[in-house]
Queue: 2 jobs
Job 1
Amino acid sequence: MSLRLRLALFYTAQLTAALLLFSFLTYGALQWNYIREVDASLHSVAWRVAENMQRFWRIPPLRSLADRSTFILVRTDELVIAQSSDFGTFPVPAEARGGRATYTTERDVNGEPYRLYTLPVYVNEQPVFWVQVAQPLRLLERVLTSLRPILGAGMAGFALLTGAVAWWLAGRAIAPVQRVAGAAESIGQSADLSLRVPYSGPRDEVGRLVHTFNGMLDQLQELYGRLAAAVDAQKRFVADASHELRTPLTIIRGNIDYLERAGTLDPEALSDMKAEAARMSELLEELLAMARADAGQKPELEPLSLGLLVRDVCHKAEALPHQVEFRLELPPALDRVMVLGHEAWLRRALLILLDNAFKYTTSGSVTVRAGRQGDGVVLQVIDTGPGIAPEDLPRVFDRFFRADPARSRGGSGLGLAIASWVAGLHGGRLTAESTVGEGSTFSLWLPIYRPAVPQTNS
Ligand code: ADP
């Protein structure tokens, strides 16, 4: 059953029940009031007769006391002594026989209803005579009889009218809800999360419903967008990884073919194959590192002396092929700076920055500088290389991004992505500044570790 029909039925039932109650009350009140009036008139006539009898020991002229619709009768237990007109007799009710004045409703031989008042008259403290006064209730019965169909028809008409009005009102009341439901349904069918339920009404219950629904769609759209971007990134990652792995494999297979055909172990081909195999394992290691990072694996961190670590990495980096001067500007205070870190990953990140600087700088110098910045320490690798174009700068930390389209300098495009992940792992950050033709500066900021000093009670 629809909500509209339920509402309409509910209102109709309520109003019809109220009208039914009102009709019963009116009907009952009319009947009760009429009979009360009749009873009062019967009572006054009967008492006048009884008083006369008791005071003067005679029955007053009944005809003069009775009007056109009143009948008076005086009787003993068995005998009618006097009556105002010849309208027959009524039995003396048992209660009146016992000595109590009684009102009853009787019917005569023709079935006509009468209201009857029977008043005992005492002689020597015994009820000996009874004065009976009656009035026909024909008029009341006629009124009530004609009122019943009027009330019934009125009730039916009212129920129908109420039903129609309630149906119309319920339709109007739930029209906004229906509009909202329709819009929500079409959004669901089209699966277009950019659609919104239009609503320009007041901020009532329906307004709040629409607002909440649209808010939910906002959140869903945002979540869906993020999910789609993550899936896209994942797809790109897999495609790029496969592409990167395919190149060294092709070179190795080409060399094997060549060696097969030549029938000799050409040292140059062998060294090519060795270099490509090494590149592949390096790439695989980097892919593994990225996969671990994606899986949310966090290696354990421990307090480390940053100065020692940086000096050692720079010392080892001297062995990397480079064409320019390598300068260290590390203050002695750096040796006392502790960070909470993972030694192998920190080394790796620094080596990536140094390797890039050496790789891309052909003249000038590469400088490693360190200093305090806020609550942390910043390590900078500054080169005087070709620099990075402003449009490429924000993307250098993306996986597989390489500004050099020819990819002539080797590398996978994963180095800075890994270094940036390492920075995040330590609660730090990696940033880059660069000017084309002047050089680049990569800054790794790490928070300083300050162990909590145990409180001593002196
Ligand atoms: P790659 O393995 O290609 O070096 P990275 O993620 O380390 O990958 O670097 C991404 C890209 O950023 C590089 O391909 C290069 O174009 C640019 N880049 C990184 N470091 C430097 C630098 N010191 N000078 C100029 N360009 C750089």
Job 2
Amino acid sequence: MKWSIQIGKVMGISIRLHITFLFILILFIYYFAVIDLKIGTMVLGFNGMDISLTEKLLFSTIASILFFSTILLHELSHSFVAKRKGLNIQSITLFVFGGVAQMEEIPRNPKLELTMAAAGPALSLVIGILTYAFYVYFGPLEVDGIGMNTKNAILITAGIISVYNLVLGIFNLLPAFPMDGGRVLRAFLALWLPYMDATRMAVSIGKTFAFLMGIFGLLTINLILILIAVFVFYGAQGEERETFFAISLEGIKVKDVMTPRQDLIYVPPDWTISQLVEAMFRFKHMGYPVQEDLDKTTLGIVTFEDVQKVPKEHHDSVQVKDIMTRAIISVSPENEAYQALQTIAKHNIGRLLVIKDDRITGIITMKDIMRNMQFKHMHPFPD
Ligand code: ZN
């Protein structure tokens, strides 16, 4: 995924941080250092302490990293349930509004989805309650010793982790996509309804919810609420589309929709660009595998975009091997077509080579996949 870095691996899942997540982390560090928001006896910031700004920032950094680790734990709890039920999770990317797990397949099993979706908010609530108990047991803050006082710093940190985990847990239980509550709701409805209908209903409920939240945000001039409403609205819509693709392509494999080997057109590496352009006009394909012959390993892939980078006057001297892309992105013929679609979208490319045992067996394009979906036409296309 673009704009993210890997920070480690847990249970075979690579943990990635998206740049938006790091940005929010920095905002939180600053926020906790300069604020002293009070809830009851709890103080949720280090500003009130009689210490230097550097020390406040230091405490705030520790509290923020601890809090963000609990967000990671929330995401891991979803994946932990999935792994235990035999689903393969490759990576988790933490975004500004939580995480996205990269899964090979989506569980279409309502009971599993219910447990998976509920695990996250449940863990956040448990962390919130436990740290609250810690606060109550060791608290409250020593008002006289609000200065450089380790006990106070620990209690403020516990308060922050407690309150924000409770907020996170409750917010995620809102019955709207893309929050966990939306998934819980869909899974619950899917116990009785077909999966797509359950998704549609959960999406409408989520959209209505977002709409009401937006109106309320406008009336109270609460910018954050309006932003969340917009985020929830588009999240719901995205979920509907994703589910539509996933369901329409269910059971369809790459080999069912690809251009098979016998119909493949390839170009040799020593062809000139002029020869290639001629082939493009004749066969009306925009991309070709580059190889000596079909039984040899594919050397690369060459597309119309590559051609455009070469000035016309060099078309007779430059060869295909000079401009082709050598890093080949491929799928196996046995992969799900839906997975191929995700790979195409993720890398923003036109076509994937289908490779088995190091030999090319076909090519699959976005068009091949879409055409197949139109044939099935189980449901009208969601807009
Ligand atoms: Zn979650």
